[in-house]
TrEMBL record:
<dbReference type="InterPro" id="IPR000515">
    <property type="entry name" value="MetI-like"/>
</dbReference>
<keyword id="KW-1133">Transmembrane helix</keyword>
<keyword id="KW-0812">Transmembrane</keyword>
<keyword id="KW-1003">Cell membrane</keyword>
<keyword id="KW-0813">Transport</keyword>
<dbReference type="InterPro" id="IPR035906">
    <property type="entry name" value="MetI-like_sf"/>
</dbReference>
<dbReference type="InterPro" id="IPR045621">
    <property type="entry name" value="BPD_transp_1_N"/>
</dbReference>
<keyword id="KW-0472">Membrane</keyword>
<dbReference type="GO" id="GO:0055085">
    <property type="term" value="P:transmembrane transport"/>
</dbReference>
<dbReference type="Pfam" id="PF19300">
    <property type="entry name" value="BPD_transp_1_N"/>
</dbReference>
<feature type="transmembrane region" description="Helical">
    <location>
        <begin position="179"/>
        <end position="205"/>
    </location>
</feature>
<comment type="similarity">
    <text>Belongs to the binding-protein-dependent transport system permease family.</text>
</comment>
<feature type="transmembrane region" description="Helical">
    <location>
        <begin position="134"/>
        <end position="159"/>
    </location>
</feature>
<feature type="domain" description="ABC transmembrane type-1">
    <location>
        <begin position="95"/>
        <end position="305"/>
    </location>
</feature>
<feature type="transmembrane region" description="Helical">
    <location>
        <begin position="241"/>
        <end position="266"/>
    </location>
</feature>
<dbReference type="Pfam" id="PF00528">
    <property type="entry name" value="BPD_transp_1"/>
</dbReference>
<protein>
    <submittedName>
        <fullName>Peptide ABC transporter permease</fullName>
    </submittedName>
</protein>
Length: 319
């Protein structure tokens, strides 16, 4: 298994090289430049020309790419044109916020989805199952940004329970107060994201539980007098988790990339909002760094899903 993991990691290297070239070329092909809007729409063209020249934006693309790669191996992803900060520092700051929101959302998602999916499958055809299915259908039919806006309107402005923007209140001081403020800022977006993210998991798990409880090995276990609780615990539940485990790695790395909708609506300073602003401002250095990071997270998600799947079911091994 460890040899396979090492081989998969080595295969990622040429994939990342190809991805970096494509991302670099696509970023350079975007219309506009990173200086006109950030300085002044009526700025002197000579000033824009000077800034483009000293930043090497008139060099051939391959020369720009080579310089970028050389700095990349030195741990330097360049300077953000819009924020005037090193891209590495920007990613660290925003990545920390996204990490806390992603972990909180992921925990809530599985805490809600696993019991609901198992319960719905166990109560197949009964009113409890119908109620859970109605919940999944309604949630799936509503666009995610609408759920976010309604959540802010009810819990942020109507009931005034949770903050509606930022990651930490500017008025707090001290480590304990800062952590409490950070937690308060991620509860509402994390809860809304978890409620929306449970839909597929609940539906998959319900279907797997229903299929498993009608399978031959479950009938054999029942005929031998095995208690129903043990059947669900040792047979149905574990086998039903296989499709969920197969997508777990993608879910984790996807959340780490940041949710553009969530961070935009809540003005949450994370990776998703940083990426959206970078596109709006033509901030090429930030765009290339983030897309390359997203590509790496996607490749790691594939590997992580295989590892999780092999842990959940000993019969499945990465060969």
């Amino acid at each position: 298994m460890w040899k396979t993991i090492l081989r998969r990691i080595l295969i990622m290297i040429p994939e990342l090289v190809v991805l970096s070239i494509l991302v670099f070329l696509l970023a350079k092909a975007m219309p506009g430049d990173p200086f006109t809007g950030s300085i002044n729409p009526r700025a002197d063209p000579a000033q824009i020309h000077h800034l483009m020249k000293i930043n090497g934006l008139y060099d051939p693309w391959y020369q720009q790419y080579w310089n970028w790669v050389v700095h990349l191996f030195r741990g330097d992803l360049g300077m953000s044109y819009e924020y005037q900060e090193p891209v590495v520092d920007l990613i660290k700051q925003r990545g920390t916020n996204t990490l806390w929101l992603a972990v909180f959302t992921m925990i809530l998602t599985y805490v809600i989805a696993l019991p609901l999916g198992i319960y719905a499958g166990r109560r197949e055809g009964k009113w409890q199952d119908t109620l859970i299915r109605v919940y999944t259908y309604v949630t799936m039919s509503i666009p995610f940004f609408v759920v976010l806006v309604i959540g802010i309107w009810i819990f942020g402005y109507g009931l005034n329970i949770f903050p509606t923007s930022g990651s930490v209140s500017s008025s707090v001081s001290g480590l304990g107060a800062t952590w409490l403020s950070r937690l308060g800022h991620i509860i509402l977006p994390g809860l809304l994201g978890a409620l929306f993210g449970t839909v597929n998991i609940v539906q998959y798990l319900r279907s797997e539980v229903i299929d498993a409880k009608h399978s031959d090995y479950v009938r054999t276990a029942r005929s031998k007098g095995v208690p129903i609780k043990d059947i669900y615990k040792h047979h149905i539940f574990r086998n039903s988790l296989l499709p969920i485990a197969a997508f777990a790695g993608y879910s984790i790395t996807g959340l780490l990339g940041g949710s553009i909708f969530t961070e935009m609506v809540f003005s949450y300073p994370g990776m998703g909002l940083l990426f959206l602003n970078a596109i709006n401002y033509r901030d090429y250095t930030v765009i290339t760094a983030l897309v390359l990071l997203y590509g790496l997270l996607n490749l790691l998600g594939t590997l992580l899903s295989d590892i999780i799947l092999s842990v959940v079911d000993p019969r499945v091994r990465v060969e």
